[in-house]
Amino acid sequence: MTTLSKERLPLPPGSLGLPIVGEMISYLRDPGRFIEQRQQRYGTIFKTHLFGQKTVVLIGAEASRFLFANEGKVLSMTNPLSFEVLLGAGSIGMKTGISHQNLRKQLAQAFQPRAIAGYVCTMAEITRSYLHKWESLGTLTWYPELKKYTLDVASKLLVGVDAGSDENLEKVYETWAQGLLSIPIRFPRSKFDRAVHAREQLLTKIDQVIHQRQQNPSSQQDVLGILLQARDEQGNHLSLEEVKDNVLGLLVAGHETLTSALTSLCLLLAQHPEVLQAARAEQEQLGFIEPLTQEHLKQMTYLDQVLKEVLRLTPPVVRSGDRKVLESCELSGYLIPKGWNVFYQIQETHQDSNVYIKPERFDPQRFAPERAEDKKFSYIPFGGGIRECLGKEFARLEMKLFAALLIREYEWKLLPGQNIERVLLPFSRPHDGLKVKFWRRC
Ligand code: HEM
Q1: Domain residues for 18?
Q2: Based on the structure, what is the number of domains in the chain?
């Protein structure tokens, strides 16, 4: 189709809302409802105006296939100003084209199968120490505890540092993350201003770690080691700023998402005792072999289905980042105009009743070989295409290892009188953080 004939196509249905603010206020008030209402009214491709940009929202397999196929060609990653400032210009999320490809190649080394296999022992050790801690607490709010746990794992395995449940570090992270969806204007004590300060504090910490590593170079092939040695095609090192931005980005990507996934796992298993029982029966049948290895984990096929279903029903990242449309294109008979933004909605793509039987139900059997409902482009918790999640094998390993150790030895029960409604942004989580009673099985 020529550019001229494309321009004659209709725009997707929808509303651009008010001048300047567009539909941002209703979006931020309740992003889940915002998307749901518009999908009901307009279908799976609709226009809106968010973060100061005319935007097309994409839902479903055809739309995600379109985005993955066109990424880096007529679509290119773009970020709201708050993300640019808080993640930093050197971070992989900000890079496009050849510099994205090069950096991705370097970072991918830390997630190769051999590197992943080397993480099992440390992950199991940290997991056990947290399970013991929760047992001694008796009752706990799990989401903040899981945040400490995943941050400890990420800090240790990605940068070789014992975060050691540093309460202050966790608070600084929280302030930083709160800034992601704030209005990026700096006035004293505004959310954004506090987040920028938090970023500076985090970078200072990372700086200290880098300095220590430079003083005592080790052969450690963690992300930090790889980034410090990385060179581009011309043989140039990454700048210190680039190294710091990516360490920060990976620590955040590597713990916020996993915290969300593990919290959902714990909640869904508490709500579905029959699934917990079946997962436990599989563990018992395999025998509680120690130490756990990747080979043992591979045999836990029912647990795989459970974890897959957790990521389908409650994806930690409910929507992708924005892509800028570099050239007008066509999707399902609509014009996707040059200069607009697009993003794909993971949450709603996972609710397609043409693909998933009773999609609103937690049903791990949908991923059993005889049903195999995970059709390509309809199951996208880790995104896809050239920006597919770099840490997905790391995430799968941590989820599985955590789940196996948890269900073998522990019980938990939801405490009454709490709000477990999901808050979706920036990462999906239960409103009150999941309060539970926790004890060791007899
Ligand atoms: C990208 C999800 C864990 C590192 C992504 C994307 C999604 C995602 C949906 C694509 C976003 C887009 O296209 O706009 C998840 C989920 C996780 C998880 C659900 C856990 C359950 C991790 C971990 C790490 C990580 C553990 C690293 C330690 C990254 C990076 C990218 C990414 C670096 C950007 C890749 C690029 O731009 O080329 N993730 N992620 N993620 N993820 Fe993850």
Answers
A1: 3-440
A2: 1
